[in-house]
Write a structure and sequence with these properties.
The complex is a heterodimer. By secondary structure, chain A is an alpha/beta fold. Helix content of chain A is about 30%, strand content about 20%. Chain A has one domain: Peroxisomal Thiolase, Chain A, domain 1 (3-Layer(aba) Sandwich). In chain A, strands 1, 2, 5, 6, 7, 9, 10, 11, 12, 15 and 16 form an eleven-stranded mixed beta sheet that branches. The chains are: A alpha/beta, B alpha/beta.
């Protein structure tokens, strides 16, 4: 899989608008600043009883009604798009990235609290999001476990680069519900204290929830419409471990392949990457697998690596897009975010990760990677737009 | 312009299973089920570990993918990792496994959740099982549109090949007890069994039987 390259075309996919709703509150700026301030939104879960689970904490968004009239993710998306105001072109294609969507509607129905469990189907959510956003182009759900939204960004960029469409809205969401929490608990994947990615003492992940969107356009259209270009999606790649449903590969070959695909697609070398936004869940196996891949590809330059999951939790299907937006902000600020909750870096991560933010001379390019169940891995290369004379 | 063709097709319905290039069509005997044939042939004498424990959609997906790979003459061993990706769809996401998992959890007093049910509550899990069992190391995605989405996943798979994201892509659908997977790749020789021709003839809302009929007839036309 190494060495494959996407033929470069004239059409450059760029992000012209993006925002998010996270446990820190509304807006990507707030989330970015909270991470830089080393805050964590992981706290005791009050939404459902956690007494029987292996943890009692998660990063949840305030003032959402659980098992109410509408699902958690629709409440989140309504707030998010109310923030962003108009601006989604009617001809935009829509890619909705999620793992479990409105799973709380199924819970509600099976717990005898009303409603129809079939309402939790992802195609139903897709129709609601199309109505909410006004994106009237072709639409599809994209789901690839916890790489869902970075996979969707990759698909959107591919659609633009190939000339198939010139405008794609990527919307991403997932929520913390009893269904999901009990499942991760059964897998023994949750840490009892807030997640400590890349720390020697890490014991698992903290769940989180978020909704995010990004509007991608061809650079040509963005310029035509006088849009502010936030970043270029320069390259993307996916690779599968083909190894185990829940455990990552011991050889990291899926992630290595995804990164090589993204670098090749962006026509850049490992040395061109200024920093890496890692998946960094805080589970022993994931973080070890990632560092093995980074060491295999980036040992010559050791770019700084960070994870935001100690701060916002693991937002599952929304994680890739949330982390892409944070990486975009980090590029603009030439600042590598700290890995929140990191105290003593694991041996394999020492020298790569830091609990402090780091100022770079002039960051131009970031790598965002994600991994998920079924051994899926994604990598995106983001370029800061060149300032035109 | 790159021409993407169908290099292999595997299908399974409640009546039987088959391939196109190899011309196989096995009708289930009264006592036969997917579970019984899984032990003696559908998986090329390489039985799937814990096949009985998989969810229904994963079983159908594995069967259709196994047949599609065999039809294209590709070694299906998990030991040889292949630059083949998989994009799949179905008509209900993971609603069946979601219900099974959460009902079981509720029946256990909301205290005990089963990890082996939870892992199948992702729409992409059936493709994940296929990737593991057949060594598919390329991109892996679940996609679904507003209606039946076989055309959507086939087009996406073709775009991934054209964009050099993977050399070969499996694209397919499970629907009820039926499933079809096709192996797509670049065709230098041309021929009639191109993705364009299949989609033009079958239509975007076609079901498994219609796709099989269409691919079969295009193949016959090619040979004539």
């Amino acid at each position: 899989m190494a060495g494959r390259g996407v033929p470069l075309s004239e059409l450059t996919p760029v992000i012209v608008q993006a925002d998010m709703l996270t446990p820190f509150g509304a807006g990507a700026d707030l989330c970015f600043e909270s991470i830089l301030a080393k805050q964590s939104a992981v706290a005791t879960v009050k939404r459902f009883n956690t007494a029987e689970f292996t943890s009692r904490i998660a990063a949840t968004i305030r003032d959402l009604q659980y098992h109410g009239e509408t699902s958690l993710v629709m409440q989140m998306l309504e707030r998010l798009f109310a923030l962003s105001g108009p601006g989604i072109p009617a001809d935009a294609a829509l890619l909705l990235a999620t793992t479990k969507g409105e799973i709380d509607l199924l819970e509600k129905s099976l717990l005898g609290k009303g409603g129809d469990s079939a309402e939790s189907r992802l195609d139903r959510l897709l129709a609601k999001v199309a109505d909410l956003t006004g994106a009237r182009g072709p639409s599809a759900v994209v789901s690839a476990a916890c790489t869902s939204s970075s996979a969707a960004v990759g698909r959107a960029a591919a659609m633009i680069r190939s000339g198939k469409t010139e405008c794609v809205l990527v919307a991403a969401c997932d929520s913390v519900t009893e269904f999901i929490y009990s499942g991760f608990s059964s897998l023994m994947a949750l840490d009892a204290v807030p997640a400590r990615p890349f720390d020697a003492a890490r014991k698992g992940l903290s769940l989180g929830e978020a909704a995010a969107f990004s509007l991608l356009m061809s650079e040509e259209r963005a310029n035509r419409e006088g849009r502010n270009i936030l970043c270029e999606i320069a390259g993307w790649g996916m690779g599968d471990d083909a190894n185990h449903m829940t455990g990552p590969s011991r050889a990291s070959e899926g992630l290595i392949s995804a990164i090589q695909g993204a670098l090749s697609s962006a026509a850049v070398a490992p040395g061109d990457i200024d920093f890496i936004s890692a998946h960094g869940t805080g589970t022993s196996y994931n973080d070890e697998m990632e560092m093995r891949a980074f060491r295999a590809l980036f040992s010559a330059t050791t770019p700084p690596v960070y994870s935001v999951k100690g701060a916002v939790g693991h937002t599952m299907g929304a994680a890739g897009l949330l982390e892409t937006i944070i990486a975009m902000k980090s590029l603009k600020a030439s600042t590598v975010p700290p890995t929140v909750n990191l105290q003593c870096p694991d041996n394999g991560a020492r020298g790569w990760v830091s609990s402090e933010p780091a100022l770079l001379k002039r960051a131009k390019r970031a790598l965002v990677v994600n991994s998920g169940f079924s051994g899926v891995n994604t990598a995106l290369v983001l370029n800061l737009p060149l300032v035109k004379p | 312009m790159m021409t993407i063709s169908i290099l292999g097709t595997g299908w399974i319905t409640s009546k039987g299973y088959g391939t196109i290039n190899l011309g196989e069509e096995h009708l289930f005997a009264p006592e036969e089920t997917l579970y019984t044939v899984a032990k003696n042939g559908i998986f090329n004498r390489r039985p799937v570990k814990n096949f009985g424990r998989l969810d229904r959609l994963s079983r159908i997906t594995l069967a259709a993918v196994s047949l599609a790979l065999k039809d294209a003459g590709i070694d299906s061993s998990p030991d040889s990792k292949k630059d083949i990706g998989i994009v799949g769809t179905n008509d209900q996401g993971s609603q069946e496994t979601d219900t099974a998992y959460f009902r079981d959890f509720v029946d256990n007093g909301r205290k005990l959740a089963r990890a082996n049910l939870f892992i199948y509550t992702l729409p992409s899990s059936p493709m994940g099982e296929a990737a593991i069992h057949f060594g598919l190391a390329g991109p892996l995605l679940y996609m679904a549109g507003a209606g039946r989405s076989l055309a959507t996943v086939m087009v996406t798979a073709a775009e991934m090949i054209a964009g050099a994201e993977s050399t070969l892509m499996l694209a397919g659908m499970t629907c009820g007890d039926e499933g079809i997977y096709t192996l797509l790749g670049e065709s230098k020789a041309g021929g009639k069994c191109t993705l364009d021709n299949v989609l033009k003839s079958a239509g975007v809302d076609a079901d498994v039987e219609k796709f099989v009929t269409t691919i079969r007839s295009l193949k016959r036309g090619q040979q004539a």
